[in-house]
Specification:
about 290 residues; alpha+beta; Arc Repressor Mutant, subunit A; 2 domains; seven-stranded antiparallel β-sheet; 10 helices; about 35% helix; about 30% strand; UTRA; WH_DNA-bd_sf; transcription regulation; DNA-binding; DNA binding
Length: about 290
Amino acid sequence: MSVEGSMASEVTDDVPPPLELGRAAGAPLYAQIRDALRHQIDSHSLPPGAPLPTEEALQARYGVSRSVVRQALGDLADLGLIVRQRGRGSVVAPRPEHRRRADRAGGLRQQVEASGHHLRTEIVELAVDEAPSAAAAALGVTDTWRLERIRRVEDEPLVFMRTWLPRELFPHLSAEDLDGGSLHDWMRARGVEPQGGPRQLQAVPADEAVAAHLDLGVGVPVLLLQGVTRDEYGRGLEWFTAWHRPDTVFDVDAHVRPRSPGAGGGEELGRVRELVQELALLLGTQSPQA
């Protein structure tokens, strides 16, 4: 085994999984290393605060010069993904957590701005489209608008949303109507009052479209919030799927269910019956003059 191969085997545990650098693929070597490390950061394989492999370890692992490694790390630092410390190496930069209520319909802007950040909405696409089966079942129609938006916090993508709205309720809709604003506020301005509805939250891998919109690697786990919003009459106003970056924290205000009247009643009822029987025995043993 060569000295270089020996060094590579010693640092295997400290670096990302093996990467075949495509020297003839057109992408610069530093960019390929940068993207491999970025995928590790986005997928939380390298969580915030974790040290990156040393420059020497990366050189040995990828078989490149130190200048190539430094250029890759410099790009990651410029993107705000790592912090370089003289004499101490590089660590993954802390990412701010964005919190929202899982049991609250809408109100993302208020929740984000309450934490001192600014939320911006970008319209990706608005088109007339046939609702998928789940949306059609929730809305009761197949003739819908398909609205795709990215919600950004300080220009960083936070959530990618795909929403279906019934055209019979909202026959006139344009991207200009919603650009930068709240969909629910737009509904209220047209005399429709959103009330809420059931939601589901689960972790799913990001597909190519979601990964591109959220600036993540394909397959990175994201949080999918899915559900329907209805008005006070029970009409379906929107059916949506919203993919959140993995640094989103959903808060839930949980309550313990109060004991029902019958809960634990078996033991209490049995004790009451015993007391009644004891009382009947006592009364039966007493003389009429007592």
